[in-house]
Amino acid sequence: MTAVEVHAVVEGPADAPVMLLSNSLGTDLSMWDPQVPALTERFRVVRYDTRGHGRSPSVRGDSTIDDLADDVVALLDRLGVARAHVAGVSIGGMTGLRLAVREPQRLLTLAVLCSSAYTGNAESWADRARTVRAQGTAVIAEPVVSRWLTPAYAAAHPDLVARLQAMVAAADDEGYAGCCAAIQHMDQRADLGRITAPTLVVSGAEDQAVPPEHQRAIADGVPGATLLSLSPAAHLANLERVPQVSDALIAHATGGAL
């Protein structure tokens, strides 16, 4: 499949090292808004919308993790970026893992947040794709977002919950379903040992969408990887634990202490 020319926003000093941020399934690049002020002090931050999300084009049919990695390579080439620090949440982290295996020369470091190398629930992803294709993303917005934040944090931030639900509902139905297929058919466990980029794995202790054992498996599989567990935090740990995630990304990319 041909790479999609994904929509991207570039911020920060032009001469700084590049940090590329990849969004989670159902969100857009604005999910990284809380991290931008801190990150742009040190990095040229490139955020993009995964295909079928935000302002990026969608494609008909199923996508693969390799397709999503192709989109990132094409974006980096378009921007003239030879190497970047790569960080991704959920499907963004899965994309980062694939990039680290396939394109090791393009990564300075890798940060994988609230993600998995193998979800182990292929049929549930197939069911979700069928539901979205038949009824649209709006029907899954509430149940999906209910697992993104801890209950206490969600209760204290109803505006954020509403914004996240609207984000899911705005995702292209076919594009979202195609990305579900990418997760459904993905198994990167055998490749983890080939990753050479310094790797940080961030886990939300209360993550019900992709529970902590998935992050432990990544950290155990990638040579020299560091595992950081945050609590309380659910699937979108970067929203719930803003300074901790920002500080961890900066420390990892600059060789500082976590």
Automatic annotation (TrEMBL):
Domain AB hydrolase-1: 17-241
UniProt cross-references to Pfam families, sorted A to Z: Abhydrolase_1
Any one GO biological process: beta-ketoadipate pathway
InterPro entries, per database record: AB_hydrolase (IPR050471), AB_hydrolase_1 (IPR000073), AB_hydrolase_fold (IPR029058), PcaD/CatD (IPR026968)
GO molecular function per UniProt: 3-oxoadipate enol-lactonase activity; triacylglycerol lipase activity
Protein name: 3-oxoadipate enol-lactonase
